[in-house]
Amino acid sequence: MAGRMSTRVAKGDREVAEALQRLVVAAVRYVPREISLTAASTLGRVERLGPRRITDLAAYEGVSQPSMTAMVTGLERAGLVTRRPDPGDQRAVLVCLTDSGAGYLEALRQDWTETFARLLGQLPPSDADVLLTAAPALRRLQDLVATERDGAPSVSRRVAEVAS
After folding, report:
1. What is the CATH number of domain 34-112?
2. Which of 21, 67, 77, 99 is the most buried (most CB within 10 A)?
């Protein structure tokens, strides 16, 4: 990988990486949501990885255990997660996504999709065609990020695997 990095991280790669970074930041700020980014990230992580201990979620998100406990309490009050005893350690609890939590994530993704579909419709057709051609590569990039971050494939990859 190091050899690839030294030969491939050229001006074009950095230019694409910078454009993607700016797009992600703009998108996060643009699309409204009812919960914090950390809370949404936590919901997504529980969706991808399954039930997790609060201490594990705190470590994943880079927050303190008391902060994660408070956030999980808020998510639980909103009906997005539940807590259940950890079968491996009855002193601990696992945070589980509820059907409402899964629905919230799906609605959030749908809002993002609709927003970007509308914005893509405002691009010149040639730009839209380039992005359509790049969509498979962007999905693979998403999977690389998810695997590096969690050690687990993204939701889109798992859905595609189940469908095939």
Report:
1. 1.10.10.10
2. 67
